[in-house]
Amino acid sequence: HQKPASGYAAALLGIAQSNGSIDPVEKDVQRLLKLLRNKQVQAVLTDPLVGEKQKGLVMIDEVANYKGMFHKHLVSLVKMLVRKNKASLIEEVLEEFERIYDELSGTKVVLVSSAKKMKEDQLSKIAMSVQSLTGAVKVKVRNLVHENSLSYAV
């Protein structure tokens, strides 16, 4: 049983592959995910008093504010999902796109949990260590911050 997000993500991946724009689309997916995870945007998107249509308009506004900065296929997908009243799926679709892209490109994803946000150089060192240990071509390190937990060095 496939999730709707998987279908939309696979469609975006397919069109990007057929146009030879997979890497630029993937970079834009990362940027849009980061934008959607902004505290102010999240406050609107998770507010139960804000309707699905308004949430969709917020997403379109966010994409429009960066006009020309997001790939046209990604913008089309966001607009289509909003038109279909599926704005709540956008973040899940983007995450699924990332998962499929990582799988296809042989990218290893490492989750690092810490009590506070780690610095880029720390994350880079972890990525290089994982790369040398596993032989992976590409490694992405995601820092999961749990502010109330203890942090241990390994």
Automatic annotation (TrEMBL):
<protein>
    <submittedName>
        <fullName>ATP synthase delta chain, chloroplastic</fullName>
    </submittedName>
</protein>
<keyword id="KW-0066">ATP synthesis</keyword>
<dbReference type="GO" id="GO:0016020">
    <property type="term" value="C:membrane"/>
</dbReference>
<keyword id="KW-0813">Transport</keyword>
<comment type="similarity">
    <text>Belongs to the ATPase delta chain family.</text>
</comment>
<comment type="subunit">
    <text>F-type ATPases have 2 components, CF(1) - the catalytic core - and CF(0) - the membrane proton channel. CF(1) has five subunits: alpha(3), beta(3), gamma(1), delta(1), epsilon(1). CF(0) has three main subunits: a, b and c.</text>
</comment>
<keyword id="KW-0406">Ion transport</keyword>
<dbReference type="GO" id="GO:0046933">
    <property type="term" value="F:proton-transporting ATP synthase activity, rotational mechanism"/>
</dbReference>
<keyword id="KW-0375">Hydrogen ion transport</keyword>
<keyword id="KW-0472">Membrane</keyword>
